[in-house]
Amino acid sequence: MATDDPLNVVALVSGGKDSFYSILHCLANGHxxxxxxxxxxxxxxxxxxxxxxxxxxxxxxxxxxxxNTISNLAAIRISxxxxxxxxxxxxxxxxxxxxxxxxDEDEIDLNSFMYQTVGxxxxxxxxxxxxxxxxxxxxxxxAVDSGTSYKDPDGHHEEEDETESLVPLxxxxxKAHPEVNALCSxxxxxxxxxxxxxxxxxxxxxxxxxxxxxxPELPHSSASTTTSAFPTNTLQPAACTDDAQLLRDMAxxxxxxxxxxxxxxxxxxxxxxxNVASDTGISRIRRxxxxxxxxxxxxxxxxxxxxxxxxxxxxxxxLFKGRIVVCDNDKRVxxxxxxxxxxxxxxxxxxxxxxxxxxxxxxxxxVRIPDLLxxxxxxxxxxxRSKFLGYEHGSISPHEIGQRPSFLSLxxxxxxxxxxxxxxxxxxxxxxxxxxxxxxRQRLREYSLSPxxxxxxxxxxxxxxxxxxxxxxxxALFRExxxxxxxxxxxxxxxxxxxADITIxxxxxxxxxxxxxxxxxxxxxxxxxxxxxxxxxQAITYPLLPIDKDNSNDNDVNSxxxxxxxxxxxxxxxxxxxxxxxxxxxxxxxxxxxxTLALQHLWRVGAEMQVQWWSSAVAYFPRSTTTSYTKHxxxxxxxxWRAAHAMPSSASSDAEDGPDLWDQKxxxxxxxxxxxxxxxxxxxxxxxxxxxxxFDPDSYSEGGLSQRALPFVFSAEVEELPRSAGVExxxxxxxxxxxxxxxxxxSSHGSDKxxxxxxxxxxxxxxxxDVFVQTIAAYQNSEAAHSGVGVRGTQHILRVVGQILQTxxxxxxxxxxxxxxxxxxxxxxxxxxxxxxxxxxxxxxIPCRSLWDSAAQxxxxxxxxxxxxxxxxxxx
Length: 876
Hints:
Strand content: 15-25%
Number of strands: 39
Shape: globular
Helix content: 10-25%
Number of domains: 2
Structural class: alpha+beta
Radius of gyration: 29 Å
Number of helices: 18
């Protein structure tokens, strides 16, 4: 199936606003919703069955009973034409009014971490209200696996965790509707819920859809509503939105979502049955939460912290053919204590909508689909299209900010990370990949390490067509949640060492303890960033520097240490469809949009992982037929990188019609939204310029920044990229949890004997006194071009780099480790067809057809080195 073909969707519904709004987005994206699916509370008091009676009306008007007692292990199907009646004490379906003075088993909320159960009595009416078949299954088990990310259970655990109740439910749907190939859920900010739905969906061969994932932090569209996934680009930033924008969008789409549970000190039972998808409801909830200091939390106004739960009783005619009506005397308040109260609904019915209403309200209603690019990256794309990109821009390179630090009192610490480099040797690609996987497994056993110790990988293939074979074998290494971040490129037939069809670099953290590692592994389609559909994560974090052994049990001390973030290579896929970007008017090759969109993906993943600064980055491009076009792409990438780091001008910050600096930092209206880059952002942005030592924003020109105070960026021409993409952005490392002024940048040139090497360094200090240094040595020697000096030339360059590192800069910058982490080599300058064994031990070799700096000047080699220094030597 093509990535942009319409999908046949089964939608999980709890009755809440998020699941139904997600259905509307499925429809807006051209997919077909085939059925609804719901999990309900099991019967109490040890009962093993639910008394459910479904009556259908025959053609002559008579009614016949077509169902009775059903085991709670089996799913039931309710058709839109079924008239549902049930015993209310079981709470499975609506029915005759019960005695309100008796508190039966129905008036117990499961308080499930995974599923909303309040209002479950109304769920069966959704079949009639929407015209879609509804499948229901009892929730079995409890939250056995309480981790944020969910590990697929072993067979003997399958029925213990409540997540696994989804399996028989969805199997029943697939049996009745084998055409279903996607599963829709309403996950917004909850990693706990999203990862569990993804786990079940992927095991059953379904594509997970979570269109609302990170939706509150996506920018408001330039138009009020749109049904196009690719709206017209605009250079004007979107208007500031607030944290309740999602509720306003739901109201604009016609949803009516009533509060059925409150569990916040600010929300009393007087909020029950309030319509949150309305201006009145939003205002009331916001005021109440602010009174108790609850409005500053991420997603609080949306109820993402459990502040309230909702029940949808009406929606647009595209989904709702009738509305659900509940009379006042059919609602009973149940008080659980501790400020928690909810409504037990005793009876409800579906009221068909008049035909006139169905027609009139269909016109003008729509679902807001966020723009493909947020305002910051719209502006970047506009600058790439409007400016003449000549060579006059000059090189982007960091320069010294503040005084050069002295590391004379520091000691070189043993590295907390290792780099394992493996190359295929003999046999076809399947044999070589299997051989490497076996080697990695054996090495893990030797070090007594779990595969979770691997945080990042770079896979270099001779042919991208071999990727599916490699992916399957490589993926078998990782059974735990959040596999390593990954970068994959193809270098062609003539660049890898002889007989090698694949090389793999693995970054391994052998000292990482449980809880040190955190991953972001979104496998659902959304508007946010591309889903990771293979055995890799968007990002993995781990300690950048050794944990302070003297304070190893002091969480407050170690929580202040900087964090390293490894991020997967980002290609320009449209997140909602997972297809490559569409052709844009006036941009025949589409490379500008691809560069911009892939860079936005890198920014959004980085912002979610709270990255404040990048160490360096490379933009990979596929093979070009002309040198001029290769240079053109290098200039575009450098210009986009520069623009992404641009600071808002002082003029725009002080504008009368926008938020001032105080607003951006302290006003809750502008503090809610994440690092989208527009002037409404108030969280520490990416980049966070305050982490730079002695950084003076006044030294930067209005409307931009000095081009030199940036992380080093370069371009690498390879053979091919995944999905035949036009670009792949790879940030070598992100830094998070960095303190004010703890990052320093330096640049220097080689000695008089070697004028062809420049050094670009980023230094990160921590409160513990440890220091991390990453250095890029960029070598440029026009005389070496086309010389074919072979492997000896590569070793010679490494010796030259070593000599530079041990010159006068060494006492100040502390470089001593000469084994590079990554070595990018221009194949036009160096012959790489020799014995692969002669290159092993020299770090990962990334063979490239050409290398280019930010001024489109050709490079012969780029070497990345890392070292760590501290006031004391850390023990293993």
